[in-house]
Amino acid sequence: MAGGQERILRRRIKSVQATRKITKAMELIAASQIARSQARIVANRPYRQGMRRIIREAAAADPRAARKMLSTPEKVETALVVVIVGDRGLSGPYNSSALRAGDRLVHMLSHQGTKVRLVTIGKKAPAFFRFRGIDVEQSFTGFADRPTFADARAVASAVAAPFVAGEAQQVLLVSTRFHSAGNQSVEVEQLLPLSMPEDLEVSATSGLKGYTEFEPEVEQLLTELAPRALESEIFSALLEGAASFHTSQQRAMAAATDNADELGQTLSRIMNRARQDSITTEIMEIVGGAEALRSGK
Fold first, then answer.
1. Which residue, 45, 87, 95, 238, could crosslink 147 as a Cys pair with Cβ 3.0–4.6 Å?
2. Are residue 202 and residue 73 in the same domain, yes or no?
3. Backbone angles phi, psi at 81, to 5 degrees
């Protein structure tokens, strides 16, 4: 083997080994973040479920007021779309899946004649949409990996303002939902108007009434609860998005580490085989030279 070729192979092997150290470290960090993110999802669940239960009971107590507050208008002239992705890459399909889903939703609404106003969360989103000629009205960054309730409140305030002012008749959310460590899915949900509880129609038609007396009136109560419910839903989506990001990154870095191991082994075999061939060639040359000298005598 020529000395120059061996040096090149050695440099490549060292480069692969250095890259492997980085991907392995990122894999371990992501794995530790998954457990934290899951714990935060579990801790937030009672508040979210309690908020939904109160709205469901209030809606069952006064279905007419509930429909007035919770029903989506037949004609939606303007829809505000919120897309949640990550602040960083190297996370497998996490960002691209949510971005493509958001892009499809925007185009679908546009084809239906609905004006779309876009709000994004995560650094990876604005450039994606602007490259496709879609204006981003507002972008939130810096907290996608570890969101707080204050972050959710800021987003909720920004998306609720156009809805309350009548500038948008619907607010839709595109985010990645975390079902388990092996199962995450991109979903589109309606944030505003608040979704009608699934069992409301049953309560209204069967004659069943809520067992709770509400003070103030249901309509006023729902008006006051709506901002809190919106914050809760956005915070839940942010938490599940963070958990999904770390899970996707852990898998991506594990795959990268395995690929680095395989590439390193392949390069080592190539170098060893070339060295063996070089040594064999040198031995044959020496033997051939010795035979030639012996014959010359």
1. 238
2. yes
3. -110, 130
* Number of domains the chain is built from: 2
190 near 170, Cβ under 8 Å? yes
Name the 3-class secondary structure at 171: strand
Q: Are 174 and 238 in contact, with CB atoms under 8 Å apart?
A: no
CB 219 within 8 A of CB 68: yes
**pLDDT tens, residue by residue, 50-101:** 988 888 888 888 777 777 667 777 788 999 999 999 999 989 999 999 999 9
- Name, in order, each residue with C-beta under 8 angstroms of 208's C-beta and a sequence gap of 6 or more: 60, 202
Contact in structure between 85 and 94 (CB atoms under 8 Å): yes
Rounded distance between C-alpha atoms, residue 172 and residue 188, angstroms:
7
In the block, tokens 């990876």 appear at 124
Domain ranges, residue 116: 31-251
Q: Is 115 helix (H, G, I), strand (E, B) or coil?
A: strand
Secondary structure class of 123 (helix, strand, coil): coil
Residues 51 and 36 in one domain: yes
Residues 201 and 271 in one domain: no
**Domain at 280, CATH number:** 1.10.287.80
Angle at 62 between CA 57 and CA 65, to 5 degrees: 115
What would the 3-class secondary structure string for 187-199 be? EEEEEECCCCCCC
d(CA 153, CA 170) in angstroms, rounded, equals 18
The model's confidence at residue 281, banded by pLDDT at 50, 70 and 90, is confident
DSSP SS3 for 233: helix
Phi, psi angle pair for 79, to nearest 5°: -120, 135
Q: Rounded to whole angstroms, how far apart are CA atoms 275 and 270?
A: 9
